[in-house]
Amino acid sequence: APPIIEETPPEVKEWFEQGIQQDEAGDFQGALESFDQVIQLQPNHVCVWFYRGNTLKSLGIIEEALSSFEQSIILRPEYADAWNNRGSVLEILGNIEEALNSYQIAVDLEPNDPYIWNNRGNALSDLGRLEEALESYQQAIQLEPNYFNALYNRGISQLNLGRLEEALISFNQALELQPDDADVWYNRGLILQDLGQTEAAVAAFEKAKELQPDETES
User: What distance in Å separates the CA atoms of residue 13 and residue 39, rounded to the nearest whole number?
Assistant: First the structure.
């Protein structure tokens, strides 16, 4: 996040820091009240609109979170994190095309952020644009080779594109990072089954069930 503007009065700084601490402690309602105090005192405080958006998202108040991120963008159009988080709430609202536009702006502003590339991939995937999604996940992994979510998402895209051997490699890499992830084991089982490796597939399904006993696998 960008630094707080230098001429911030001490009272504003106190409310802002209190809000961040409350948010980190899970007191989202308290954080929201603190951030609203900041806005009353200094409505052009860029960061507070951003943090307020995150808090509202945590509270499930999605429309208002969107407005908050958009206000931080109005105040600082080059704020990549705000564009990224705007995308994430637009996805929750089901506006995937506009979410993708938001991620695209974010990635143009901050091309070395693997998390934005991963989010962009998710939006493309939701739109059925799997080849482009795959490229986006690949970019995320290039920037952060041990990024579990991007490796898993890449595997899912490869699986959906019928590239089974490639998907298997992605899932194996994901398991090196998180060996206890039931979803990866289950998807790995599906691939092994399709590749005719029945014994290995059964072992993968059993591992998935052991890690997530409540899940009924079909």
Answer: 11
Which of 57, 35, 53 lies closest to 45, judged by CA? Answer: 35
Handedness of CA 173, 177, 178, 179 (dihedral sign): positive
The CA distance from 140 to 157, in Å, is 14
Q: Distance between CA 165 and CA 10 in Å, rounded?
A: 58
Distance, CA of 52 to CA of 166 (rounded, Å)? 41
The Cα 215–Cα 116 span in angstroms is: 31
Cα gap 38→44, rounded to integer Å: 10
The structure's pTM equals 0.88
Q: Sketch out the chain's domains with CATH numbers.
A: 1-76 (1.25.40.10)
- The gap between the terminal CA atoms of the chain, to the nearest Å, is 44
What are the C-alpha distances in Å from 108 to residues 29, 40, 46, 182, 189?
34, 33, 20, 35, 37
Strand, coil or helix: what is 67? helix
CB 34 within 8 A of CB 47: no
Q: Which residue do the tokens 């709430």 mark? A: 89
Q: Phi-psi bin for 101: left (phi > 0), alpha (psi -120 to 50), beta?
A: alpha
User: What are 130-168's pLDDT values in tens digits?
Assistant: 999 999 999 999 999 999 999 999 999 999 999 999 999
